[in-house]
């Protein structure tokens, strides 16, 4: 693959800043979490699909069927990621939710070991154990009434953790597929499949699909353009040029950015167990990502 015209490190900074706004926009919305996720993905798809056709009209016809199937499966993982993570924000703090959903480097490391037969170093093992300890501290502290923020922090944390597992599947698939799958066709397939899955979930849940005021549609649009287009799409571009471990460790900036925005915009102060557990989790993720980079 040829060298990119844009420095991937600059692109990662833009992407992390963009995704850091996601939790705040979701919290600002009064729509059901699954509806917000649906319209975010639909609007993003409507933006990238025409660009894919205009940029290379024959790109879709050149895709191998197995790659299209793999990209579709990635779309399912993305849909579950959004559905569980968006819902978690209704039950736990922004800081806890975003930190747990960004535990995905741990699951990337485990997935690479289990599925790609990559060696697990002592550093990777230590990082995983450290991050798991942080998750236990955060969740056990809130279970025992340690000042967690949210209606049901333990439930919200569990949803965010599932979202982290699905994000790891998304990154692992992207690392492989983006080496041979052009960016715009890839994200079009992934986003379109995710949108269909979320639509089925929204309809099955009995939520209205379109009956929302202009304020909500503005928030859906901001979610699509900011975290969707400049966040996820730029991250997918970066996966074609840099190691997944670098992308994963770059996302460590999201919990910090989201927590600061939650403090400034929502006046949400994380509880003590969230702060302590979050620091331990971030340390564990950092050790894991550093170890992955050293053996890649």
From TrEMBL:
One of its GO terms (cellular component) is membrane. It holds the Pfam family EamA. The lineage of its organism: Archaea, Methanobacteriati, Methanobacteriota, Stenosarchaea group, Halobacteria. This is Membrane protein. The keyword Membrane applies. Residues 11-139, 155-288 form the EamA domain. The chain crosses the membrane at residues 38-56, 68-86, 92-116, 128-148, 154-172, 184-205, 217-239. The keyword Calcium does not apply. It comes from the Archaea. Keywords: Membrane, Transmembrane, Transmembrane helix.
